[in-house]
Design a protein that fits this description.
Blueprint: H1 2-19, E1 32-35, H2 37-40, H3 46-58, H4 61-64, E2 68-70, E3 76-79, E4 85-87, H5 95-105, E5 109-115, H6 131-141, E6 145-149, H7 158-172, E7 177-180, E8 198-200, E9 212-215, E10 218-221, H8 223-228, E11 242-244, H9 256-268, E12 273-275, H10 284-290, H11 293-299, E13 308-313, E14 316-322, E15 328-334, E16 340-344, E17 352-353, E18 358-359, E19 367-371, E20 376-380, E21 385-389, E22 394-401
Parallel strand pairs: 1-2, 1-12, 2-5, 5-6, 6-7, 7-8, 8-11
Antiparallel strand pairs: 3-4, 9-10, 13-14, 14-15, 15-22, 16-21, 17-18, 19-20, 19-22
The structure holds alpha-D-galactopyranose.
Length: 403
Amino acid sequence: MKRILLAAVLAAAVCSAASAQKFEGLAQTPPMGWSSWNKFACDINEKVIKEVADALVKSGLRDAGYVYLNLDDCWHGERDSLGFIQADPVKFPSGIKALADYVHARGLKLGIYSDAGRKTCGGRPGSFGHEYQDALQYARWGVDYLKYDWCESEDINPVGAYNLMRDALRAAGRPILFSMCEWGTSKPWTWAAETAHQWRTTGDIYNCFDCVDQHPGWAAYGVLQILDMQEGLRKYAGPGHWNDPDMLEVGNGQSESEDRAHFTMWCMLAAPLILGNDVRDMSRQTSDILLNREVIAIDQDTLGIQGLKFKAEDGLEFWFKPLAGGDWAFCILNRTTEAKTYTIDWQQFNLYDDVARRFTDFDSKTYAVRDLWERRDDGDTRKPRTVTVQGHDVKLFKLRIEN
Ligand code: GLA
């Protein structure tokens, strides 16, 4: 009898472990929003965040799809006597629930940040040992998104730590998008599709197009360096589970061409589009980039397949992204600082994409060509075309299948 009982208990335990799962139905296309980190780092407070919420609405960014407003590090105060985390009472005197209400009233969603270790990267309380309590607190506050970092984690197993928080979120009952930030260290693309809705693939982005910010023991990476580190990862991403090459630096001081190239390549990667600039005060050039709906649509395409680098030649890269309905996005990236002129002979780009299981087949198919930055229909693929790509810039085309 005892044995039967033990077997039943074990079976129940195995079943409940196997049924643990993240919230389904979230992030069917790459998440879009804004985060405080790239511009404000630890210098955040409720006044700034409310102004950002208003600006997301007024600028049209919310209506273009940027709906998550994410507090990154340093919103935290202490834990209360029962161990529940509280907001910093000086920076957020009204508390996070009031902030969530403010954000929700504007048609936005609220994101928050914690860390699997004992402390966050900014030295605030981490969730280690408080996972279920923190998840419950976020759910009670009305939080919609959690970015979960990896500082102070030396003795922690990443699979266990991230699955633990996933289960805690699930148990708290509110659908909260789970964004893993362990910098690609344990190759999360190989194991985290059932754990999270997105995972960082690299260390932090550095606000530079083509450089590395090297420190003893760690580095931050420019746009091109992060792009190169995405090699081989496309087959692991898809609806509900995305590779995250980190938040955007568009509008933070790189040139207009560089901002355009950065934004375009993140769209070609089907990356989460999390803005990192001060949206209260954007130049016309910045908002033109961030609000180009035809370019956003490349990122948000419902097929959810990342683009592939087909070839690289003389400083230019040629990328294709399969789109729903047989269309493609096609992009030429100029990695150099010199303008380059190139003649596109479409037959040179006959390729088979083994993730989408589809040929471009320019011999027997014709595609209508639209230049998405020039916002111009531009003939079709029956004839070659010559284009000039400025230094650190892109040309981006949508190829619409005609036959
Ligand atoms: C880490 C993350 C960043 C940011 C900071 C906050 O470096 O990778 O994206 O969240 O911590 O301290």
